[in-house]
Specification:
This protein is of the alpha+beta class and 670 residues long. It has four domains: 154 residues, Thiol:disulfide interchange protein DsbD, N-terminal domain (Immunoglobulin-like); 190 residues, no CATH class; 106 residues; 174 residues, Glutaredoxin. The strands form four sheets. Strands 1, 4, 5, 7, 8, 10 and 11 form a seven-stranded mixed β-sheet that branches. The longest helix is centred in the middle third of the chain and has 39 residues. 36% of the residues are buried.
């Protein structure tokens, strides 16, 4: 009987006057967008988003009765036990009595709806997920529309939070590989910096001589040196593994924009910088050093391992600043970043011991420890003080304290690097400095190498001075506070006025942002930039233009580089002025939202109370990605037209992406 009623129900819908017209999706009809979001290593959320045209009603998946309308969403039966829990429906569900169904109550949506299904997948294997949507909708003219829409979703192996939509692109891939290589190279450079510090450099002759003396043959000495070097690599790589295990990528990303984290790093860099200048010496308690050193007398490999651990402990004051800087860098990497970074660091630290063990004669040509190492330590101390300001600035920008504006920051850097240049020229001396060498006439002199380092420091100082009047300083823009924090900026006077609107009225062009403009200011000169998505989408609807969403952050170095090198390019600015509405959404801003705007995230269940997490939650929900910068072009319904990816300072490529968006938008909105 139930089957018969269902058949009769469909026949009723097919008769004239209430006919269901089966059709495929077109630009003016319903839009179904499949995507996925990785919950953890073994589980994803399959998300089907339906955008409903104005005036239409899409019926709910809730089946109230066989003869009442509903939509069916099914996934491939082959998934079987991989499906976790029931299909969830999220949206503004409405209920009303319908004359088409004997005045009985029906359930439907009028703007959008999301269907979410948890699916268990193997992390190491690519997964193809198929399904179909059999929908029933009531159109604005009172007729009914029905169709079966299949979809295919590809979940890549080791995929992480990516929207699987063919026309959206991805901001990962090669960029991720490059970032790991960059982290490895920075780790390598940090290791080389730690190697030439007094704590480690002076230990090379003693340690290598120990290998050769305790070994019965040269081969045994080389073997011991290799064990020692491998132990150093193992210790530091294990440190990277523990950081990943304890914090995880998500926690590291959250830490990177945390005011507490940035202030702690600022204090750490400041303390070690002052220590390097000779104010005091930082060492671990002697009990720890003695305990570790006593273990170095154990058997072959274990003894060498504890010898390596002794080196790590004794050199604490010299290596921790480099390790701290590396730890900060890996907060912006992926899960493998700590392992890759600390492997590079330990490799640079351990390699010299192996090389000198293989070729002991090189020890004779090794520079003697002495005053030059003290000079390196002072230079590193000044660098650490300069870098410390970057982290204080990140907290200052996120909370809008305005204690370290751009001109204040630049003034401090100019003074620090100016002192560095004068120190390298021998015009400034510190308490623990040794005297400069003397020439044949018993006069102090500086080496040519030291002179070139001094020239570099002073040239950099001169380069920064125009920044006090607003010069963009593109070469270091990623390290500076945002231009909007500078009170006196001659560049603002020369900012381009918005171009005339080729396609709209002057009233449309005059639409300006209001929300959050009391403490946020656009980094794109001459472009009216919104800082709230809802306000921006309303402007896009009024101006009949696509919306470019710039997901950015106060502490995002690559965001500053993209703003200076790409978004402020004259051709890009003209395109943005004429053809787009622009929204810059800061994902790390700590502005506290009014309590009536708090909500619980559908992505991770957290309570959203501040602007930054709200924008980050929106980014993850929209794109499945949480990286910055990220440039997303959407239509007036919020549907992605193009994901232009993240950091890529190729102006022509960005212009091409904007041209593609304009063409696609015009094709869909004739």
């Amino acid at each position: 009987m139930k089957r018969l009623l269902s058949i009769l129900f469909l026949l009723v819908l097919l008769i004239p006057g209430g006919m269901v017209r089966a059709q495929k999706q077109d630009s003016a009809g319903l839009k179904f967008t499949p995507s996925f979001l990785r919950v953890d290593d073994t589980t994803i959320e399959v998300i089907i988003t339906a955008k409903i045209p104005t005036g239409e009603q899409l019926f709910s998946i809730v089946k109230l009765a066989d003869d009442l309308p509903y939509t069916a969403v099914t996934l491939d039966s082959a998934l079987g036990n991989a499906l976790q829990g029931p299909l969830k429906e999220e949206g503004n569900l409405q209920k009303a009595r319908s004359a088409n169904f004997k005045n009985r109550e029906v359930q439907y949506f009028t703007d959008s709806v999301r269907w979410i299904q948890l699916v268990r997948v193997a992390q190491a294997k690519k997964k193809i997920i198929q399904g179909k949507i059999v929908f029933l909708a009531k159109k604005a003219d009172g007729s009914f529309d029905s169709d079966e829409v299949p979809f295919v979703l590809t979940v890549p192996a080791q995929g992480s939070m990516l929207v699987a939509n063919a026309d959206q692109g991805s901001s990962t891939g090669d960029a991720g590989k490059k970032s790991l290589w960059a982290i490895f190279l920075v780790g390598l450079l940090a290791g080389l910096g730690a190697f030439i510090s007094p704590c480690i450099f002076a230990m090379i002759p003693v340690t290598v001589s120990f290998f050769t003396k305790r070994s019965t043959t040269r081969a045994k000495g080389i073997q011991n040196a290799l064990y020692y070097s491998l132990s150093i690599i193992l210790i530091f790589t294990l440190l990277g593994f523990l950081i990943t295990l304890i914090f995880g990528q998500g926690a590291l990303n959250a830490l990177a924009s945390s005011a507490v984290f940035n202030i702690v790093v600022f204090l750490m860099f400041s303390i070690f910088g002052i220590s390097f200048l000779g104010a005091f010496e930082i060492t671990l308690p002697s009990a720890i050093s003695n305990k570790v050193d006593s273990k170095a007398k154990l058997g072959s490999f274990s003894g060498l391992f504890f010898m390596a651990l002794t080196l790590v402990v004794v050199s604490f004051s010299c290596t921790v600043p480099f390790i701290g800087g590396l730890a900060v860098l890996i907060t912006h990497g992926g899960k493998a970043a700590p392992l890759v970074g600390f492997f590079g660091f330990s490799l640079a630290l351990a390699l010299p011991f192996s090389i000198f063990a293989f070729f002991p004669s090189l020890l004779k040509s090794l520079a003697k420890s002495g005053g030059w190492q003290i000079s390196i330590k002072v230079v590193l101390g000044l660098l650490e003080l300069a870098l410390a300001l970057k982290f204080l600035s990140s907290a200052d920008l996120a909370y809008h304290w305005r204690i370290l504006d751009r001109e204040v920051y630049l003034s401090l850097w100019i003074v620090i690097f100016g002192i560095m240049g004068l120190y390298l020229l021998g015009l400034i001396r510190f308490k623990h400095d040794s005297a400069l060498p003397k020439n044949d006439f018993d006069l102090p002199y500086i080496t040519v190498t030291r002179l070139f380092f001094a020239i570099t420091a002073l040239a950099f100082t001169v380069y920064m001075i125009p920044g006090l009047w607003g010069a963009p300083l593109n070469g270091i823009s990623a390290w500076l506070p945002e231009t909007k924090t500078q009170d006196f900026n001659l560049n603002k006077l020369a900012a381009m006025a918005p171009a005339s609107n080729a396609g709209g009225s002057s009233t449309d062009q005059a639409l300006t942002p209001h929300k959050y403009t009391d403490f946020l200011e656009s980094e794109i000169r001459g472009v009216n930039t919104f800082f709230d998505y809802d306000e921006a989408i309303a402007a896009a609807i009024k101006e009949k233009k696509p919306l470019m969403i710039d997901f950015t952050g106060h502490s995002c170095a690559n965001c500053r580089k993209m703003e200076k090198e790409v978004l402020n390019d004259q051709d890009v600015v003209k395109e943005l002025q004429n053809n787009f509405v622009v929204a810059s959404l800061y994902v790390d801003d700590k502005y506290r939202l009014p309590e009536d705007q708090w909500y619980t995230s559908k992505n991770d269940g957290s309570l959203i109370e501040t602007m930054g997490p709200k924008n980050l939650d929106f980014e993850v929900g929209l794109t499945g990605n949480n990286s910055q910068p990220q440039y997303i072009f959407v239509d007036q319904n919020g549907k992605i037209i193009k994901n232009a990816g993240g950091y890529d300072p190729d102006v022509q490529k960005f212009l091409k992406a904007m041209a593609d968006v304009v063409a696609a938008y015009k094709a869909g909105n004739p």
